[in-house]
Amino acid sequence: MGTDESAMSTVYIESTVISCYTGRPSQDLIVAAHQQLTREWWENILPECSPFISQFVLDEISRGDHEAVNKRIKAIKGTPLLEVVEPIVNLGLEYFDAIGIPEKARTDAFHIAIAVYHGLDYLVTWNCTHITGGRVRGIVEKINDKHGFVTPIICTPEELMEV
Q1: Consecutive sets of 10 residues in the chain, 163 residues long: mean pLDDT of each?
Q2: pLDDT of 131
Q3: Cα separations (Å) of 76 from 7, 39, 53, 72, 109?
Q4: d(CA 145, CA 142)
Q5: Are 7 and 1 in contact (CB under 8 A)?
Q6: How far apart are CA 20 and CA 31, in angstroms?
Q7: Nearest-CA neighbor of 52 among 152, 158, 161?
């Protein structure tokens, strides 16, 4: 899909982006900047894309404060849900082992696996520790090359301000 200039880019929206978009304004300058960039991206760029989420995203955004959960769920209402099949789980576990993600963040590996398996153009996230870091990207690309998968562009909303 990413090679056809007339097609909309496909984007997997990871949980941190949804939380950043719907969260209360932060007093932390960096977080506030991420929130502003995310809102701009969500309102100006995302409508030009074909967005997707997964059950992993739904599970993560459904935790916590009831009001915040409702805002997150409302924000992604109508967004297509990508199917989770056994090869995704296996790929996610391979990423998990290779990257060295802590057990409590295991789902981060599955976010990558679902975007890769479904052949999406982009995975957008604010998780710069376990998903979009340079070291992680290198590991993911190496594993994907071994399996014949194309690696989506893994980036922040800021990096995806032009589609």
Answers
A1: 63 97 94 96 96 97 96 97 96 95 91 98 91 89 97 94 70
A2: 85
A3: 22, 13, 8, 7, 21
A4: 5
A5: yes
A6: 8
A7: 152
